[in-house]
Amino acid sequence: MKNFKLSLMMLAAIVVLASCGGQIRLTETESVGKDAVVNSVCENDDIKITYDMWAENGITYFSIYNKADKPMYIDWKRSVFVYNDWKNDYWVEKSTSQEYLVPSGSGKNITYSRRMSTVVSERYTFIPPNTYVSVPMSYTIISSLVQVSSESTGNGKMAINMTDDLRKNKLGTKVKIASTTGKGMVNAYEQTFTKENSPYKFRNFLTYSFDEKFVHEKFIENEFYVSKHTQMSVKNFLGKKTKGKVSMKVGGKKSKAKVTIYDSPYKKGTSFYKTLIM
Question: What is the residue extent of each domain of the chain?
Answer without folding.
Answer: 2-276
